Structures are given as structure tokens and as C-alpha cells.
Amino acid sequence: MIQLSVSGAHGLDIDEKSGLAYVACDGGAVITVDLGKRRELGKVEILPNPDVAWLNVKRGLLYCANSKPGVVQVIDVKKMRIVEEVLTEEGCHTITFHQEAQILHASSPRAAG
Fold first, then answer.
1. Where are the domains of the chain?
2. What is the pTM of this model?
């Protein structure tokens, strides 16, 4: 087990090449974890209660969806800072990322209904 400084580990993606994990926590932060050394390397504040996280390995970006207020926060994982916020809609908590095509998909609850 790896102890984290922020509660509620929720979304997770791993850069297998570097051995780093990016953990989106309900407590309102993304934490970078060195899996080999089993320790926390850094963190950036995000909105609390994220739903899912996807890593864009090619661009060094982590996409964190949050259904309330309905936004995807884009984090530069090298600088550990938010570089963009993309509005979706409240309730939109499911995103997927296609590494080859470099396309982020967000599922809109209103469009599905």
C-alpha cells in the first residue's frame, strides 16, 4: 500500500514507461506516485470528487472529468498544473481517450436520454 496525502483515491492512470501513476482524489488533488519507489512525488489541486482520469502519454496531459459542475480539467503532468478547463455539462462523468487518434470523448447524459 502507498500512503497518499489526499483522501479518496478515485481515478487512476499509469504511464508504464516512466513507472508513474496519476491518482485523482476525492479530496481535490491529482497526486503523482512513483510506483517503483512507492512514494508520492507531487500534487496539483483540482475540483473535489473527480469521476475519471485518462493520461495522454504522447502530450503529457491528464484529463480529469468532474460531473459537478461538468468540466474536464486538463493537467500538464510534467509541470503539475492545470492548463485548461473544458466545460461539458453537469452529470457528464464518463470520458474515454483514444491514444492513437488523440481524441477525448465525453458522454453527455442529456444526449443519451
1. 9-112
2. 0.87
CA distance 49 to 8: 8
Task: Answer whether 46's CB lies under 8 Å from 29's CB.
Answer: yes
* pLDDT tens per residue across span 24-47: 999 999 999 999 999 999 999 999
**Contacts of the segment 55-62: beta carbons below 8 A, 24+ positions apart:** 55/13, 55/14, 55/15, 55/22, 55/97, 56/97, 56/99, 56/102, 56/104, 57/15, 57/17, 57/99, 58/99, 58/102, 59/102, 62/13, 62/22, 62/24, 62/30
Q: How far apart are CA 13 and CA 54, in angstroms?
A: 6
**Beta strands 103-107; 20-25: pairing state:** unpaired
In the numeric block, which cell numbers belong to residue 60?
A: 503529457
- Residue for cell digits 485548461? 84
Fold of 9-112: Lipocalin (2.40.128)
